[in-house]
């Protein structure tokens, strides 16, 4: 598909995002797994990765070939190099490796606490490292210029959506949580105007309700701020600003610490901007 293989993980992610609609069903499945589980790709074998991704091992090789690589191992080295560059210390690299190998035995509550604290600390630092300052500025400008801000997020994302609504109201902003009471997502989305803003939070498997509200907003020309977990989230391509948040994952339990931290940053950042304007 590509004549020249991307030389960095960032370039590969960009290529995957651009080519995603053109990929076959199985290759799209691989693409989504690669973007969502970079640590597993860096350390896993073809057999283990293909099993977890739900595809045949040969599909991983076909995917690598489609993006210009001679084989899966060549592409895998990009993921390994990225982890090495992101790790701030030798101890951090050892910890990542240990987590990929897995721990034997049952965790006590205090051990679980330690796992969650360590994983979330790394995820929060990663959030600070990868979030462009211009995206934060753009999102805060959108919120500052909006007459009203509407927020939507269902299931796991509802926690983040409800916090943003709470925080914005405490800084005297008009904020409306689209909660779909009575199944009225469409009706609540109908109150959006082009002078408003919409914040949509959605994580895999990307709720249809959130997508419908976002689509209605875009059709009205409403600025859309997205918080999601993948560059190929169905909301990403429609967003005025898109924040991709990689949450901590411990024993298959995903955190919300990074998403809530970002939500708090946007809310308090808006408060600072408004206060400065009034000074």
UniProtKB/TrEMBL annotation:
The keyword Acyltransferase does not apply. Keywords: DNA-binding, Transcription, Transcription regulation. InterPro entries: Homeodomain-like_sf (IPR009057), HTH_RpiR (IPR000281), RpiR-like (IPR047640), RpiR-like_SIS (IPR035472), SIS_dom (IPR001347), SIS_dom_sf (IPR046348), WH-like_DNA-bd_sf (IPR036388). PANTHER family: GLUCOKINASE, TRANSCRIPTIONAL REGULATOR. This is MurR/RpiR family transcriptional regulator. It holds the Pfam family HTH_6. Residues 139-279 form the SIS domain. The keyword Transcription regulation applies. GO terms for biological process: carbohydrate derivative metabolic process. Residues 10-86 form the HTH rpiR-type domain. GO terms for molecular function: carbohydrate derivative binding; DNA binding; DNA-binding transcription factor activity.
């Amino acid at each position: 598909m590509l004549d020249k293989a991307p030389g960095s993980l960032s370039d590969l992610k960009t290529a995957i995002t651009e080519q995603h609609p053109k990929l076959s069903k199985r290759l799209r499945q691989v693409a989504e797994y690669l973007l969502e589980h970079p640590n597993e790709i860096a350390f896993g074998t073809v057999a283990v990765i293909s099993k977890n991704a739900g595809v045949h091992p040969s599909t991983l090789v076909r995917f690598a070939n489609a993006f210009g690589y001679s084989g899966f191992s060549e592409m895998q080295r990009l993921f390994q190099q990225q982890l090495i560059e992101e790790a701030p210390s030798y101890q951090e690299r050892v910890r990542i490796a240990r987590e990929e190998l897995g721990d034997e035995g049952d965790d006590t509550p205090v051990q679980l606490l330690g796992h969650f604290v360590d994983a979330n600390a790394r995820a929060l630092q990663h959030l600070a490292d990868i979030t462009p300052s211009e995206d934060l500025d753009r999102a805060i400008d959108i919120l500052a210029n909006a007459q009203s801000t509407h927020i939507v997020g269902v299931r796991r994302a509802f926690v983040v959506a409800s916090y943003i609504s709470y925080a914005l109201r405490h800084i005297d902003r008009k904020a409306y949580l689209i909660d779909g009471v009575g199944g009225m997502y469409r009706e609540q989305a109908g109150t959006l105007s082009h002078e408003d803003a919409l914040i949509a939070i959605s994580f895999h498997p990307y709720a249809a309700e959130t997508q419908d509200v976002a689509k209605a907003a875009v059709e009205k020309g409403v600025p859309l701020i997205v918080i999601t977990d993948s560059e190929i989230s169905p909301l990403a391509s429609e967003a005025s600003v898109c924040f991709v948040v990689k949450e901590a994952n411990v024993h298959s339990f995903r955190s919300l610490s990074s998403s809530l931290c970002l939500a708090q940053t946007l809310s308090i950042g808006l408060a600072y901007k408004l206060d400065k304007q009034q000074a």
